[in-house]
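User: Fold this; tokens only.

Assistant: Input:
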Amino acid sequence: MIYLDYTANTPADPEVLDAYLAAERRYIANPNSTHIAGQEARAEMERVTQSIAQRLGVQPAEIIYTSGASEANNLALKGIAHASRHIGKHIISTQLEHSSVGASLSALQQQGYEIDLLDIGRDGRVDLDQLRELMRDDTILVAVCAVDSELGTIQPIREIAGIVKPYPGCRLHVDATQAVGKTDLWLDGVDTMSFTAHKFYGPNGIGALYKRRGLVIEPQISGGASTTIYRSGTPTLGLAVSLDAALTKALAGQDARNARVQRLHDRLLAGLQQYSLVRVNSPAHAVPHIVNVSVTGVKGTRFQQALSEQGVCVSVKSACSSDGLPSKAVFAVSRDRRNALSSWRISISHLTTDAEIDGFLQAFDTCYKTLTNKEN
């Protein structure tokens, strides 16, 4: 099997799993308990939170643990919207967002909030001039991903933060799920930022929301205070430890890992560009980990299934939104509905080998000739 769907999920690093198991064996008490075992667990939780905060350049009190990025996005969007409704009900986002953002915005729209979605340029980036035009005194939230999961486009967060800054009642939420370990994170002017461990070689089930100190959001889960008043539930110490371990490795090894991925990306692209019906949809300003392509005249789902039969794992759109509809992101950059329907995504990793790239290209060649009746 050749796994090229690292954007959907990454395998947990063995050292990260070891850290998780060690914590689960060592700390058996609830960190909220007041007895000595609980105090020990609490001290470890505080140490881990301090470490995560230090990696991000923020304060420990600004870290809220969640079950993943979907929960973090829900907490940020709904929490900000509900806490800011006395200021206004206008929200700005994009068509590139994860389904957890899109569904949260739809839910807010049903509650009377006004949602505007920014246009996407041919370069895959949001229209900054349109953002300036849409900003109003009653705009309470701008939500945008740092890196979109379908094309890999790196969004201009610094510039977006600069546009939002003059509006004191507006908050900026950044979904950094696909950015951690792939590109530098920009937090200046960012009010909330979501991320999840399973995208950077940690386990599933643990993520976090950075919430700027002093920002008030409305909790979405009722219950005990846990490690924060903003998210109830017993802290999962082992998962927090594994999040810290994965984040530490991802940030420390980012440059070396990215250099390897870039080399594999270039080799992959060189092979794909030999075929006349292949169209590369990922723009130039994108992380090298994600390559979105279309084969003219062949639906993306059909090509994905053909590759799967050859033992190659790629994806059509996001794994969380594979609904058979054209990719909004690909349509935005190509303005071609058929091309969007034909698109599918390859996502590679520093774990990907040259042999796997060669194996993919061989499988691709077989599928291409079968599905297009062309040699190249």
